[in-house]
Design a protein that fits this description.
71 residues; 3 helices
């Protein structure tokens, strides 16, 4: 295995440091996008409204069944 010169080692370290900075910036952007709940709500308004309606109907049916059993 050939020995690298100090200049080659420094160059390699600097290259790795720049790649790491780019990767961290990219990751930060992805995390920001994935944790943006307001953006998710805005993009999926229709699905959320349908889900809320379904949950409301299920809860209403259960409450009505309980009421009928008591009477």
């Amino acid at each position: 295995m050939a020995q690298r010169s100090p200049a080659e080692i420094r160059s390699s370290i600097e290259s790795n440091r720049m790649e790491l900075a780019v990767s961290v910036d990219r990751l930060r952007g992805e995390v920001t996008h994935l944790t943006d709940w307001r953006g998710h709500v805005e993009r999926h308004q229709r699905e959320l409204a349908i889900g809320a309606a379904v949950v409301g109907l299920v809860l209403t049916r259960r409450l009505l069944r309980r009421r009928r059993r008591r009477v």
